[in-house]
Amino acid sequence: MNVENSSDLARRIEALKREKNAVILAHYYTTPEVQAVADFLGDSLALSIQAQQCDARIILFAGVHFMAETAKVLCPDRKVLIPCPEAGCSLAESCDAGDFAAFKARYPGYKVVSYVNTTVGVKALTDICCTSSNALKVVESLPADQPLIFGPDRNLGSYIQKLTGRQNMVLWNGACHVHEEFSLEKLLALKRQHPAAKVVVHPECRAYIVEVADYVGSTAGILDYCGRSDAREFIVVTEAGILAEMRKRYPEKVFIPAPPDDETCACNNCRYMKMVTLENIRACLENESPEILLDEEVRRAAERSIRNMIAIR
Ligand code: 13P
Ligand code: SF4
Q1: Whole-model pTM over 0.70
Q2: Which secondary-structure segment (H or E) carries 1?
Q3: Rounded mean pLDDT, 89-99
Q4: Mutate to test the pocket of ligand 1, among 115, 130, 180, 204 (most ligand atoms within 8 A of CB)
Q5: Domains of the chain
């Protein structure tokens, strides 16, 4: 796409937002062009909270499917649009609601904590959701002797298990195709080249990557840490979309993306987040479609688990 085209598209999108009383919520992993037309940019927790606080008629979610679904669960009276409904998430896809119900039935008396990267059907089977920002707080809010099921991300689950020392936690075996791919060998080589750099890591990464981190947190947590740290250089071990916001906020600092194992695959990019484009945002606003529509009974059950999370933050 040339620069002229993308600025024309951005102008058209701004006009449609005004005409239709619409807001665009975008995740940090979308492309810089998409981030530039967003009214709110954030991590998955901030965007869920923002969805319920804004009073626009239309919420267009520039992110993956589970994020738009979460907005619809919280705002059933609003039209929630998803520009690319095929934009899934490897974690949400690893956890089918029917299989999860069968898994849950094997552990009577266990409470279910689910990462928000799940379908609405899995959220409906969940006692309390969490995001990577608040997973520790959510798990610590439950009595230490309460057995837990944690899904679907085994890496986030084992990280929280290690922090809390909880033994009574069973994990669903899911993972993210982006965060599982970082190479320890290449990360250590990068650290040797940049000895003063701090290593910032998303908790969806494997345990051996998390172990070498100076800071572990959600996308919003990583951004805050880079701002308050005295360091000038950071090795960033999460999806590469976040680099645009890092460089915008802290132009005096240097951000070095950690390479995935196979450097020819660009797999430190989430292929789902990159399916959201200015073209499909424009078409979605023009047509007011595709729209997220949910079964009311499932929506209500899912809402309880998300509201339980928001009450804790
Ligand atoms: P955040 O909770 O940091 O926004 O992460 C969401 C996500 O999908 C990470 O891969
Ligand atoms: Fe899902 Fe991974 Fe993409 Fe995040 S980066 S949306 S966890 S596939």
Answers
A1: yes
A2: none
A3: 97
A4: 204
A5: 3-86+273-293 (3.40.50.10800), 91-175+299-310 (3.40.50.10800), 182-257 (3.40.50.10800)
